[in-house]
Amino acid sequence: MATTTHDDRALAADALSRLQRRPCQFTLANGQVVRIPTAAADGLVNLLEALAAGETATVVRSPQEVTTQQAADLLNVSRTTVIRLIDNGELPARMAGTHRRIPLANLLSFRDAMITRRRKALDDMVAEAEALGLYD
After folding, report:
1. Which residues pair with 95 in a beta bridge?
2. What is the residue-averaged pLDDT of the chain?
3. Which residues are bridge partners to 99 per DSSP?
4. In sequence order, which ranges of the chain are alpha helices (DSSP H)?
5. Is 51 or 28 the better-scoring residue by pLDDT?
6. 133 in helix, strand or coil?
7. Which DSSP string corresponds to 49-75?
8. What domains lie within the chain, and their CATH numbers?
9. Its pTM surpasses 0.85
10. How far is it, in rounded angstroms, from Cα 17 to Cα 52?
11. Is 80 exposed, middle or buried (0-12, 13-18, 19+ CB in 10 A)?
């Protein structure tokens, strides 16, 4: 990933202030005007905010639905575990022929909830260890 210079940050901040106005369009060097969809403009605003803050940013395309293997990779669990979560009703999915497809938005929400539960469990274990004098 490329690092941003002070000039890059200044240019990003300037572009960001101009992009806050909607609708958004660009004029190419040949004079042709290109209208930008709101979702794309929002993504560009997020990108420019990161660059203006001196952070690095990556644009990633994401599908609307993922396979059980892709879900397993994202959750860092086995494919069998993902199938069990679907079969238990913990993770929504639809059948595409004989294959399960998981809505990405649902998968990301599930992952966030999983992370929250994990953090709480770790906090509880640390608190218990401190109460027992096992943790400095």
Report:
1. 100
2. 87
3. 96
4. 6-19, 38-52, 68-75, 79-87, 104-131
5. 28
6. coil
7. HHHHTT---------SEE-HHHHHHHH
8. 6-52 (no CATH), 65-131 (1.10.1660)
9. no
10. 11
11. exposed
